[in-house]
């Protein structure tokens, strides 16, 4: 067994793949490390570590879900705690008064709403407690995603890889075609799912703790003190694959204001390919980074005995993935065809059969093993996004002894064997006999498990691919930071408006309100005060009351425009908006920064950074890309000391696009409420398009003016 003293003395060779400061951020000691194959093993190991937590837990991911079944291979929990992830965390907090849990997930755009749990912060929050802190990571440029999947317990043991703690991930490494426990909270069965996570302790865990705190600070989520004393935590039932080994930590971080881009993930791919001699084994969800394919071609030409085995999903399900990642995969593989090397590169997908039932296994893992001397497990796909646009974290081991080489080879054989339904030893025997990784993968099949060629067909029309790919799979952030953020909040406003209209319609139709009113009566009631000298006061009062209860200002504008027409509606909505904004501004100024800080939390700091000392332009920008609901921004501006004149002028300019569009198309909204028809819907959609276009145009003008100043 290697000793800790040996690790401290060890120095990487000049030709090492892992080079601290270039291909990795840190190259640090680790007492124990193990590879957790598939979610049931990861969830069980994590569950046992969380039960041992005393002070601090960090969970950083692309997504989380409170109803994730945090259970092992048997699909149940026998430790007295709830099975569901959210209730499990609540039970831990109730039992451990010193424990604080930090949850950080990507602040994803609305297009992912259908895949995620709605209002996760509310699902995870604990009443009358501040020891579970839920925060959204929006510390990334437009078009980038927080894609790291890291959990750190008491700064002493950490997990990193491809698995998020969300639904439709749990599966055993048997990947049976039929598994009654493989269902989501809605009771829907899902296909077999494969992913991989690595568990580490020692300095590797402490470095990952530092990394997640950096993300926590970047997202303005508050303070998170470090642990003073390292604890010895390792879950029962999990043997270490490595002992006293060094772990390389590679990152991708897109460029942003005030910090340079980090592309260690990309450089590590290049260096490991350059070191390959006989075989490269890859498991990856996406294959679209053509510069990686070209690097593989270069090395294949240099090494005539080198083979590349790529294990990937059979298909990509969603429309966007099918037109970006599938087409990207076709282009990726085309590089080998054009180089005349297709016979030494094989793209396969895993399949399982239970009698007549056959299922393709969804490959979500991000694994790379080069010969028997380099192992890499992480969150980075072999697509463009992971090389420069998203945040990623990969862990790597470069063998420094024959023992470590044997262990890396054993992990490769174990993973390949579990796809083929055979043991690690069976894979080793076949490799020795055939001398070919590709031949071994295609010949071995047992117990219904096998690997089959991926058939992606022909690419979609070039026009579609060229339109979608730069947005869905960019090599760098989109570079439309402010303009894109203007679009997303507008979309949210529109969705809120449509949702409100649908909700009101449902109330009218399916509740007792149907007996008292309908759409026509509602509009008649609103219009009954038209011409009255009290009408302006009633409208203004409605806006003020709505602002006080955080009612969406967009909905109030739409209703006003629908009831009173474009001119009166515009004037009335503007007066009501300014009255509501001014009152809440004064409330913020009177109560001061302390109470508002408690209300807004970390968001207050973001609002302050945007508007304090930056005048009218800053207020205009924050109205066009709101960081918080309308009412909360008003209070934050008052509490932060923004000049009232700048606040009012900026509010008028920033709210103008929505006010004008909603007022001009108010009659169409009224028609839609009274007599829904295709023409009224079409006109409403036209109004939405005008609003979006006007908002984007105004955003560009204001941004240009701000930069000129």
How would you explain this protein's 3D organization?
The protein is α+β, with helices and mostly antiparallel strands. The protein has three domains: 222 residues, Endonuclease, Chain A (2-Layer Sandwich); 167 residues, Endonuclease Chain A (Endonuclease, Chain A, 2-Layer Sandwich), CATH 3.30.870.10; 228 residues, no CATH class. It contains 25 helices and 19 strands. The strands form two sheets. The protein has a 17-stranded mixed sheet that branches. The longest helix is centred in the last third of the chain and has 31 residues. About 6% of the residues have low confidence.
What kind of sheet is the major sheet?
A: 17 strands, mixed
The helix content, as a percent range, equals 40-55%
User: Could you tell me the number of beta strands?
Assistant: 19
Distance between the first and last residues' Cα: 64 Å
Structural class: alpha+beta
Supply the number of structural domains: 3
Q: What does the overall shape look like?
A: globular
Counting H and I runs of at least 4 residues, what is the number of helices? 25
On the 0 to 100 scale, the average pLDDT is: 81
């Amino acid at each position: 067994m290697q000793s800790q003293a040996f690790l401290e003395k060890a120095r990487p060779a000049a030709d090492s793949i892992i080079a601290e400061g270039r291909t990795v951020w840190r190259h640090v000691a680790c007492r124990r490390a193990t590879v957790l194959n598939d979610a049931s093993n990861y969830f069980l190991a994590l569950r046992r570590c969380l039960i041992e937590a005393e002070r601090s837990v960090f969970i950083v991911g692309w997504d989380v879900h409170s109803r994730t079944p945090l259970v092992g291979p048997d699909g149940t929990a026998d430790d007295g705690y709830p099975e569901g992830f959210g209730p499990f965390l609540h039970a831990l907090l109730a039992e451990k008064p010193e424990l604080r849990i930090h949850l950080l997930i990507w602040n994803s755009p609305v297009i992912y709403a259908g895949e995620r749990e709605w209002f996760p912060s509310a699902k995870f929050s604990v009443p009358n407690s501040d020891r579970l802190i839920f925060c959204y990571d929006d510390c990334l440029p437009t078009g980038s995603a927080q894609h790291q999947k890291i959990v750190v317990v008491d700064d002493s043991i950490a997990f990193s890889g491809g698995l998020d703690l969300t639904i439709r991930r749990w599966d055993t490494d048997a990947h049976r075609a039929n598994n009654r426990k493989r269902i989501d909270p809605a009771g829907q069965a899902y296909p077999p799912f494969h992913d991989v996570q690595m568990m580490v302790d020692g300095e590797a865990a402490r470095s990952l703790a530092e990394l997640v705190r950096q993300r926590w600070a970047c997202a303005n989520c508050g303070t998170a003190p470090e642990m003073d004393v390292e604890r010895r935590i390792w879950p029962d039932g999990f043997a270490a694959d490595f002992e006293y080994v060094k772990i390389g930590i590679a990152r991708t971080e897109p460029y942003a204001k005030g910090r340079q881009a980090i592309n260690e993930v990309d450089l590590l791919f290049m260096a490991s390919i350059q070191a390959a001699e006989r075989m490269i084994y890859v498991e990856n969800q996406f294959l679209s980074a053509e510069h990686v394919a070209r690097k593989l071609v270069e090395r294949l030409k240099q090494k005539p005995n080198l083979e590349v085995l790529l294990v990937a999903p059979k298909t990509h399900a969603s429309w966007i993935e099918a037109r970006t990642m599938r087409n990207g995969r076709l282009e990726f593989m085309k590089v080998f065809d054009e180089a005349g090397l297709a016979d030494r590169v094989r793209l396969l997908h895993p399949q399982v059969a239970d009698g007549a039932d056959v299922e393709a296994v969804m490959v979500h893992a991000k694994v790379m093993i080069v010969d028997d001397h380099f192992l890499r497990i992480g969150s980075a796909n072999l697509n463009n996004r992971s090389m420069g646009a998203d945040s990623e974290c990969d862990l790597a081991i470069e063998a420094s002894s024959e023992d470590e080489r044997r262990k890396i080879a054993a992990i490769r054989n174990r993973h390949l064997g579990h796809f083929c339904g055979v043991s690690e030893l069976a894979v080793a025997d076949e490799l020795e006999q055939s001398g070919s990784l590709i031949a071994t993968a295609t010949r071995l099949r047992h117990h219904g498990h096998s690997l089959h060629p991926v058939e992606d067909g022909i690419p979609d029309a070039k026009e579609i691919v060229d339109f979608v790919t730069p947005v869905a799979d960019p090599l760098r952030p989109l570079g439309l930071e402010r303009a894109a953020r203007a679009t997303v909040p507008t979309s949210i406003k529109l969705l809120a408006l449509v949702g409100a209209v649908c909700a009101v319609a449902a109330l009218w139709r399916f509740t007792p309100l149907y007996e008292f009113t309908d759409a026509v009566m509602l509009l008649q009631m609103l219009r009954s005060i038209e011409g009255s000298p009290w009408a302006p006061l009633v409208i203004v009062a409605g806006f003020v009351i709505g602002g006080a209860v955080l009612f969406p200002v967009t909905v109030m504008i739409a209703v006003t425009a629908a009831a009173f027409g474009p001119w009166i509606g515009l004037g009335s909505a503007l007066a009501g908006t300014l009255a509501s904004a001014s009152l809440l501004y004064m409330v913020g100024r009177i109560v001061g920064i302390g109470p508002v800080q408690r209300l807004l939390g970390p968001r207050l700091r973001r609002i302050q950074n945007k508007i304090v000392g930056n005048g009218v332009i800053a207020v205009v920008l924050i109205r066009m890309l709101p960081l918080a609901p309308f009412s909360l921004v008003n209070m934050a501006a008052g509490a932060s000391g923004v000049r009232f004149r700048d606040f009012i002028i900026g509010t008028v300019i920033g709210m103008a696009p929505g006010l004008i569009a909603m007022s001009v198309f108010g009659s169409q909204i009224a028609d839609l409420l009274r007599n829904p028809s295709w023409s009224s819907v079409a006109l409403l959609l036209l109004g939405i398009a005008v609003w979006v276009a006007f908002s984007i145009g105004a955003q560009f003008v204001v941004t240009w003016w701000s930069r000129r100043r």
